[in-house]
Automatic annotation (TrEMBL):
InterPro entries: 6-PGluconate_DH-like_C_sf (IPR008927), DUF2520 (IPR018931), NAD(P)-bd_dom_sf (IPR036291), OxRdtase/DH_put_Rossmann_dom (IPR019665), TM1727-like_C_sf (IPR037108). Residues 8-130 form the Putative oxidoreductase/dehydrogenase Rossmann-like domain. Its EC number is 1.5.1.2. It comes from Pandoraea terrigena. This is Pyrroline-5-carboxylate reductase. It is an enzyme of class 1 (oxidoreductase).
Protein backbone atom coordinates (compact mmCIF):
# COMPACT_ATOMS: atom_id res chain seq x y z
CA UNK A 1 0.00 0.00 0.00
CA UNK A 2 1.02 3.58 -0.68
CA UNK A 3 2.17 5.58 2.33
CA UNK A 4 0.87 9.15 2.38
CA UNK A 5 4.22 10.67 3.15
CA UNK A 6 5.28 13.19 0.52
CA UNK A 7 3.79 15.28 -2.24
CA UNK A 8 5.75 13.22 -4.77
CA UNK A 9 4.49 9.84 -3.52
CA UNK A 10 2.32 7.74 -5.84
CA UNK A 11 -1.35 8.54 -5.79
CA UNK A 12 -3.17 6.70 -2.99
CA UNK A 13 -5.91 4.19 -3.65
CA UNK A 14 -9.29 5.50 -2.52
CA UNK A 15 -12.18 3.88 -0.66
CA UNK A 16 -15.56 5.14 0.55
CA UNK A 17 -17.67 4.19 3.55
CA UNK A 18 -21.17 5.24 2.57
CA UNK A 19 -22.57 5.12 -0.95
CA UNK A 20 -24.84 8.15 -1.09
CA UNK A 21 -24.84 11.10 -3.47
CA UNK A 22 -21.58 12.59 -2.18
CA UNK A 23 -19.66 9.31 -2.32
CA UNK A 24 -21.00 8.48 -5.77
CA UNK A 25 -20.02 11.84 -7.29
CA UNK A 26 -16.62 12.02 -5.58
CA UNK A 27 -15.73 8.44 -6.48
CA UNK A 28 -16.60 8.91 -10.13
CA UNK A 29 -14.86 12.29 -10.30
CA UNK A 30 -11.73 10.84 -8.69
CA UNK A 31 -11.71 7.89 -11.10
CA UNK A 32 -12.09 10.28 -14.05
CA UNK A 33 -9.07 12.16 -12.67
CA UNK A 34 -6.97 9.00 -12.77
CA UNK A 35 -7.26 7.76 -9.19
CA UNK A 36 -7.94 4.11 -8.38
CA UNK A 37 -11.16 3.84 -6.39
CA UNK A 38 -10.91 0.30 -5.09
CA UNK A 39 -13.81 -0.16 -2.66
CA UNK A 40 -17.23 1.20 -1.68
CA UNK A 41 -18.76 -0.02 1.58
CA UNK A 42 -22.38 0.43 2.59
CA UNK A 43 -25.18 -1.11 4.63
CA UNK A 44 -27.07 -1.07 1.32
CA UNK A 45 -25.02 -3.50 -0.74
CA UNK A 46 -27.19 -2.91 -3.81
CA UNK A 47 -26.43 0.83 -3.66
CA UNK A 48 -22.70 0.16 -3.21
CA UNK A 49 -22.78 -2.21 -6.18
CA UNK A 50 -24.46 0.43 -8.31
CA UNK A 51 -21.66 2.91 -7.57
CA UNK A 52 -18.93 0.29 -7.96
CA UNK A 53 -20.30 -0.79 -11.33
CA UNK A 54 -19.55 2.70 -12.68
CA UNK A 55 -15.88 2.38 -11.71
CA UNK A 56 -13.07 0.15 -13.02
CA UNK A 57 -11.95 -2.57 -10.59
CA UNK A 58 -13.99 -1.27 -7.66
CA UNK A 59 -15.39 -3.74 -5.11
CA UNK A 60 -18.68 -3.29 -3.26
CA UNK A 61 -18.40 -4.27 0.41
CA UNK A 62 -21.39 -5.06 2.66
CA UNK A 63 -21.67 -3.61 6.16
CA UNK A 64 -23.75 -5.93 8.30
CA UNK A 65 -21.96 -5.13 11.57
CA UNK A 66 -19.94 -2.01 12.52
CA UNK A 67 -16.67 -3.93 12.45
CA UNK A 68 -17.32 -4.89 8.81
CA UNK A 69 -16.29 -1.37 7.82
CA UNK A 70 -12.67 -2.21 8.52
CA UNK A 71 -12.47 -4.46 5.47
CA UNK A 72 -12.00 -1.32 3.41
CA UNK A 73 -8.59 -0.64 4.97
CA UNK A 74 -7.17 -3.74 3.31
CA UNK A 75 -8.16 -2.30 -0.06
CA UNK A 76 -7.58 1.48 0.15
CA UNK A 77 -4.95 3.89 1.46
CA UNK A 78 -7.23 6.91 1.78
CA UNK A 79 -10.76 6.25 3.04
CA UNK A 80 -13.59 8.80 2.87
CA UNK A 81 -16.27 8.55 5.55
CA UNK A 82 -19.28 9.90 3.63
CA UNK A 83 -22.05 9.24 6.13
CA UNK A 84 -24.56 11.60 7.83
CA UNK A 85 -23.06 13.96 10.43
CA UNK A 86 -24.74 12.19 13.33
CA UNK A 87 -23.08 8.90 12.32
CA UNK A 88 -19.50 10.14 11.90
CA UNK A 89 -18.33 9.71 15.51
CA UNK A 90 -20.06 6.34 15.89
CA UNK A 91 -18.53 4.98 12.70
CA UNK A 92 -15.10 6.36 13.52
CA UNK A 93 -15.13 4.61 16.89
CA UNK A 94 -15.38 1.24 15.13
CA UNK A 95 -12.66 1.87 12.55
CA UNK A 96 -9.13 0.51 12.80
CA UNK A 97 -6.92 2.03 10.10
CA UNK A 98 -3.23 1.25 10.08
CA UNK A 99 -0.35 3.66 10.46
CA UNK A 100 0.27 5.48 7.19
CA UNK A 101 -3.35 5.27 6.07
CA UNK A 102 -5.81 8.16 6.16
CA UNK A 103 -9.44 8.65 7.19
CA UNK A 104 -11.27 11.74 5.95
CA UNK A 105 -14.87 12.83 6.43
CA UNK A 106 -16.86 14.83 3.89
CA UNK A 107 -18.89 17.01 6.27
CA UNK A 108 -18.75 20.77 6.31
CA UNK A 109 -20.21 21.07 9.80
CA UNK A 110 -18.54 18.32 11.84
CA UNK A 111 -15.12 18.84 13.36
CA UNK A 112 -12.25 16.68 12.17
CA UNK A 113 -11.50 15.69 15.76
CA UNK A 114 -14.46 13.31 15.56
CA UNK A 115 -11.95 11.06 13.80
CA UNK A 116 -9.41 11.30 16.64
CA UNK A 117 -9.63 7.59 17.41
CA UNK A 118 -8.12 6.87 13.98
CA UNK A 119 -5.31 9.32 14.65
CA UNK A 120 -4.49 7.50 17.89
CA UNK A 121 -3.96 4.37 15.77
CA UNK A 122 -1.39 6.14 13.61
CA UNK A 123 -3.66 7.20 10.74
CA UNK A 124 -3.88 10.70 9.36
CA UNK A 125 -7.27 12.42 9.58
CA UNK A 126 -8.87 15.29 7.74
CA UNK A 127 -11.93 16.96 6.24
CA UNK A 128 -12.78 17.19 2.53
CA UNK A 129 -15.99 19.17 1.99
CA UNK A 130 -17.17 20.06 -1.53
CA UNK A 131 -19.04 23.36 -1.79
CA UNK A 132 -21.48 21.84 -4.23
CA UNK A 133 -25.14 20.85 -4.32
CA UNK A 134 -25.24 17.09 -4.87
CA UNK A 135 -28.59 16.57 -6.53
CA UNK A 136 -28.19 12.87 -7.20
CA UNK A 137 -28.09 13.49 -10.95
CA UNK A 138 -26.11 11.37 -13.39
CA UNK A 139 -23.83 14.30 -14.21
CA UNK A 140 -23.04 15.38 -10.62
CA UNK A 141 -19.45 14.15 -10.99
CA UNK A 142 -19.01 16.24 -14.15
CA UNK A 143 -20.66 19.36 -12.74
CA UNK A 144 -18.48 19.10 -9.63
CA UNK A 145 -15.55 20.35 -11.72
CA UNK A 146 -15.00 24.04 -11.07
CA UNK A 147 -16.37 23.89 -7.52
CA UNK A 148 -14.39 24.64 -4.39
CA UNK A 149 -13.46 21.89 -1.94
CA UNK A 150 -12.59 22.97 1.58
CA UNK A 151 -9.80 20.93 3.15
CA UNK A 152 -8.67 20.62 6.75
CA UNK A 153 -5.69 18.34 7.36
CA UNK A 154 -2.11 18.38 8.56
CA UNK A 155 0.83 17.61 6.28
CA UNK A 156 1.38 15.39 4.40
CA UNK A 157 -2.33 14.51 4.04
CA UNK A 158 -3.07 18.16 3.32
CA UNK A 159 -0.95 18.00 0.17
CA UNK A 160 -2.56 14.71 -0.86
CA UNK A 161 -6.08 16.12 -0.55
CA UNK A 162 -5.15 19.34 -2.36
CA UNK A 163 -3.73 17.22 -5.17
CA UNK A 164 -6.94 15.21 -5.41
CA UNK A 165 -9.11 18.32 -5.50
CA UNK A 166 -6.96 19.90 -8.19
CA UNK A 167 -6.95 16.71 -10.27
CA UNK A 168 -10.75 16.70 -10.18
CA UNK A 169 -10.80 20.22 -11.62
CA UNK A 170 -11.80 21.80 -8.31
CA UNK A 171 -10.37 24.73 -6.37
CA UNK A 172 -8.84 23.67 -3.06
CA UNK A 173 -9.51 25.92 -0.07
CA UNK A 174 -8.20 25.59 3.48
CA UNK A 175 -10.05 25.99 6.76
CA UNK A 176 -8.45 26.22 10.22
CA UNK A 177 -9.36 23.76 12.94
CA UNK A 178 -12.33 24.72 15.11
CA UNK A 179 -13.99 27.03 12.56
CA UNK A 180 -16.33 24.62 10.79
CA UNK A 181 -19.54 26.05 12.31
CA UNK A 182 -19.00 29.56 10.95
CA UNK A 183 -17.75 28.13 7.68
CA UNK A 184 -20.78 25.89 7.25
CA UNK A 185 -23.20 28.66 8.26
CA UNK A 186 -21.70 30.80 5.51
CA UNK A 187 -22.21 28.01 3.01
CA UNK A 188 -25.89 27.89 4.00
CA UNK A 189 -26.30 31.51 2.95
CA UNK A 190 -24.90 30.77 -0.50
CA UNK A 191 -27.12 27.69 -0.91
CA UNK A 192 -30.26 26.97 1.12
CA UNK A 193 -30.79 30.51 2.38
CA UNK A 194 -30.67 31.77 -1.19
CA UNK A 195 -33.66 29.50 -1.83
CA UNK A 196 -35.38 30.97 1.22
CA UNK A 197 -35.01 34.48 -0.22
CA UNK A 198 -36.49 33.32 -3.50
CA UNK A 199 -39.37 31.79 -1.55
CA UNK A 200 -39.95 35.19 0.10
CA UNK A 201 -40.06 36.84 -3.33
CA UNK A 202 -42.53 34.18 -4.49
CA UNK A 203 -44.75 34.79 -1.46
CA UNK A 204 -44.86 38.53 -2.07
CA UNK A 205 -45.77 38.09 -5.72
CA UNK A 206 -48.39 35.48 -4.87
CA UNK A 207 -49.90 37.95 -2.39
CA UNK A 208 -50.75 40.26 -5.30
CA UNK A 209 -52.33 37.45 -7.27
CA UNK A 210 -49.44 36.19 -9.39
CA UNK A 211 -49.51 32.39 -9.84
CA UNK A 212 -46.60 30.63 -8.16
CA UNK A 213 -45.39 29.06 -11.41
CA UNK A 214 -45.35 32.45 -13.15
CA UNK A 215 -43.56 34.08 -10.21
CA UNK A 216 -40.81 31.50 -10.13
CA UNK A 217 -40.35 31.48 -13.90
CA UNK A 218 -40.13 35.28 -13.95
CA UNK A 219 -37.39 35.44 -11.32
CA UNK A 220 -34.77 33.28 -13.08
CA UNK A 221 -33.46 35.95 -15.49
CA UNK A 222 -33.28 38.37 -12.56
CA UNK A 223 -31.48 35.84 -10.36
CA UNK A 224 -29.02 34.74 -13.01
CA UNK A 225 -28.35 38.31 -14.11
CA UNK A 226 -27.57 39.28 -10.54
CA UNK A 227 -25.23 36.35 -10.02
CA UNK A 228 -23.42 36.99 -13.30
CA UNK A 229 -22.99 40.67 -12.42
CA UNK A 230 -21.69 39.78 -8.96
CA UNK A 231 -19.15 37.41 -10.46
CA UNK A 232 -17.91 40.05 -12.87
CA UNK A 233 -18.10 43.18 -10.69
CA UNK A 234 -18.05 41.94 -7.09
CA UNK A 235 -20.88 42.05 -4.57
CA UNK A 236 -20.80 45.80 -3.97
CA UNK A 237 -20.40 46.57 -7.66
CA UNK A 238 -23.41 44.44 -8.61
CA UNK A 239 -25.76 45.95 -6.02
CA UNK A 240 -28.87 47.40 -7.63
CA UNK A 241 -32.22 48.68 -6.38
CA UNK A 242 -33.23 51.54 -4.09
CA UNK A 243 -30.34 51.18 -1.64
CA UNK A 244 -27.78 51.41 -4.43
CA UNK A 245 -29.53 54.60 -5.63
CA UNK A 246 -29.85 56.06 -2.14
CA UNK A 247 -33.64 56.18 -2.46
CA UNK A 248 -34.90 56.34 1.12
CA UNK A 249 -38.44 57.15 -0.05
CA UNK A 250 -38.85 53.85 -1.89
CA UNK A 251 -37.38 51.90 1.03
CA UNK A 252 -39.87 53.61 3.37
CA UNK A 253 -42.78 52.68 1.12
CA UNK A 254 -41.48 49.12 0.79
CA UNK A 255 -41.38 48.60 4.54
CA UNK A 256 -44.81 50.17 5.04
CA UNK A 257 -46.33 47.88 2.41
CA UNK A 258 -44.69 44.80 3.87
CA UNK A 259 -45.65 45.71 7.44
CA UNK A 260 -49.29 45.92 6.36
CA UNK A 261 -49.16 42.23 5.44
CA UNK A 262 -48.35 41.17 9.00
CA UNK A 263 -45.87 38.43 9.76
CA UNK A 264 -42.12 39.09 9.56
CA UNK A 265 -41.91 40.37 5.98
CA UNK A 266 -40.91 43.92 6.96
CA UNK A 267 -38.36 42.66 9.49
CA UNK A 268 -36.67 40.34 7.00
CA UNK A 269 -36.60 43.11 4.39
CA UNK A 270 -35.07 45.54 6.87
CA UNK A 271 -32.38 43.11 8.06
CA UNK A 272 -31.36 42.48 4.45
CA UNK A 273 -31.43 46.20 3.77
CA UNK A 274 -28.84 46.60 6.53
CA UNK A 275 -26.53 44.36 4.53
CA UNK A 276 -27.34 46.24 1.33
CA UNK A 277 -26.32 49.47 3.08
CA UNK A 278 -23.08 47.77 4.15
CA UNK A 279 -22.36 46.87 0.51
CA UNK A 280 -23.32 50.33 -0.77
CA UNK A 281 -20.92 51.99 1.67
CA UNK A 282 -18.05 50.09 0.03
CA UNK A 283 -18.51 51.97 -3.22
CA UNK A 284 -16.04 54.80 -3.79
CA UNK A 285 -18.74 57.41 -4.45
CA UNK A 286 -21.26 56.26 -1.85
CA UNK A 287 -23.82 58.87 -0.78
CA UNK A 288 -23.35 58.61 2.97
CA UNK A 289 -26.20 60.95 3.83
CA UNK A 290 -28.66 59.01 1.67
CA UNK A 291 -27.57 55.71 3.18
CA UNK A 292 -27.96 57.17 6.67
CA UNK A 293 -31.51 58.18 5.73
CA UNK A 294 -32.27 54.63 4.59
CA UNK A 295 -30.91 53.28 7.87
CA UNK A 296 -33.29 55.59 9.76
CA UNK A 297 -36.19 54.49 7.58
CA UNK A 298 -35.80 50.81 8.42
CA UNK A 299 -34.95 51.29 12.09
CA UNK A 300 -38.56 50.88 13.35
CA UNK A 301 -38.79 47.45 11.75
CA UNK A 302 -35.52 46.02 13.05
CA UNK A 303 -35.37 43.70 16.04
CA UNK A 304 -33.58 45.14 19.08
CA UNK A 305 -30.54 42.91 18.60
CA UNK A 306 -29.72 44.17 15.07
CA UNK A 307 -26.17 45.61 15.24
CA UNK A 308 -25.91 49.21 14.09
CA UNK A 309 -22.44 48.59 12.69
CA UNK A 310 -23.94 46.54 9.83
CA UNK A 311 -25.41 49.76 8.49
Amino acid sequence: MTTLSTATAPRPTLGFIGAGRVACALAIAAARAGYDVTAIASRRLDVAQRVASALPACEALPIDRPEDMNAIFSRADLVFLSVPDDAIATCAAHLSPRAGQALVHCSGASEVDLLAAARHQGAQIGGFHPLFLFAGLDDDAIRLSGSAITIEADAPLNDTLHGLATAMGCRALSIPAGERMRYHAGANYAASFLLCLLDEATQLWQAIGMPEADAQEAMWPLVMGTLNAARERGLAGALAGPVSRGDAGIVTRHTEALASMGGNHATLYSLLTLRAIHLARQRPNADRAALDAIARAIAPYLPPFAPERDA
